[in-house]
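Students often ask why we bother encoding 3D structure as a string. The short answer is that it lets us treat folding as translation between two languages. Here is a chain of 357 residues written in the first language.
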Amino acid sequence: MDIIPALKFTDELSLVPTYSAGYRGTKNVTELVGGGTLTQQAMDHSLTLKFVNQITEDIKLKLKTGYKLELLKETKDESWGNGLFDYEKIAAGIEGEKKINKKLDSLTGGYGFYKLKFKNYASLAEKEYGQELAGKIGKNVLDSNAHEVYLYSNFVFTPDLQAKGDYSFTYKDFFDQKVVTSSGDYSKDKRKDQIHLLDLLVSYLQTYRERIRVVYALGLQTVVYQSNQNHYDAKNFKFVPNYYNYWEQGIKPEIVFYIGRLPYAVDFSYQFTYREYLERLTQDTNGNYLSNGGIHTNISTISLGISYPFGPKEFIGKISLRIQANYLISKSNMKYEKLYRYNYDTANYFLGINWEY
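And here it is in the second language, the structure alphabet:
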């Protein structure tokens, strides 16, 4: 659910507050701390304020700030607000947008800062081994500050052939998580992560008849994740450097049919993602290390959706019924899953109403 009561003070200055809320009642594997964590239910609330200043006809300046609360249940009997991985996110940023020309529609760049706080999570070492050892590790080990810079643009080659490009770089500082050493001890250095993300999307509109239009789209995504954090397996006396480093490549073909005068839409997509951890080693179901190299994971997602417009005459084209089904399957050469989930499948279904105004 999204509520966006935009306010326009002058022709140049406006305020766009946005409240969003969501609930998911199906099992899902969520990536939070460097691997997949199984959750039974999820709920989120967020409030964003965006100030937009139209400096010139071609240039906009935007100031943004926001707050998000994410609640996650790992078990069915867990109460809301007590989840181990519940977190708060406070964000602020500045963004500039410039209209270029007919071919390069616009160019947008910005900087953002956000703070993540896992309010219920603290290192298990304090509970298991006492405060002395916990002081060496750190307590709020998942809390972090992040700086993000990004640049994206829309390309219009012809009215029917368009593309989008998006690049972002994020620097995360885990200010209370100490780096693991090769001896299994903890250094004075703190964990720091860097994330490079590149997104490309090309779409082509083909009209076959007056009331039948088809959009063909192809999306590509590349992620490079780098971290100075290591891992020490005390059970097997094994040191794994750069435990969180990976690269990921995804491809997503999609086709959307628009049928009728209003119209109603049928969309189908398939996404394949390959992820390879550069130095995280494979293990069997008992945790014994194997000699077949690093961990790699293949994730396939199939989605099918239908949107059907309905309602009173004055709302035709603005209200639609949305039905969607998604199925995801993840397969990996990693069989030890006491820390993270690598092999799983999940399905979810959505039924709701879209209202555009």
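Translate back mentally: The first strand starts at residue 2 and ends at 3. Keep this in mind for the problem set.
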